[in-house]
Hints:
By secondary structure, this protein is an all-alpha fold. It has 6 helices and no strands. It has helices at residues 3-50, 63-67, 75-82, 91-118, 121-125, 130-165. The N and C termini lie far apart (43 Å).
Amino acid sequence: MTNIDHRRLVDETLYALAAEIAENTVALERRMAYHDRILPGLVENQRAAEGGERQRISISGALPEGLGLTPLRSTAWELASVTEAVRHFDLPILSTLSLTYAIQESLHEYDRIVSAGIIQPQFFAATDQPGAVIYLGVMLSDVRAREDELGRFYAETLRHVRQRLGDPEAGAVMEVR
């Protein structure tokens, strides 16, 4: 491959990564909005459970939607990792992308751990028990903090990739409703 071919490969890969990160940002923002809607009621239930009070609202019906595995993609990153493209990334871009996708994978793994504990039928049967409510409140609060961290990394990484490409709109997502 010539230097021009390497440059083209890097640019095409960075555009694909920008698109993937932008799409993941939209998916993450939707998930965060859902968690922001259910977290206040859950915190209220958690405080009531810690104080020995009976929970005031039901939480079991709404949980599976937002606490399942995160639908965030890493296809472009995986493809870039197995091709020559990453060998030609400059170090700051490579470091930023690597860290961002590592944090995304960490959130995915944490989701699996949390989900494994709450998708069991016996968990939902026990949501009037203090332990289950406290566990869920703590876990969702922690998941939400991890989502915030990943959102910050997405924004910073997308900024770096767009700057490197010289294209402030690279990866822009157009939502159709």
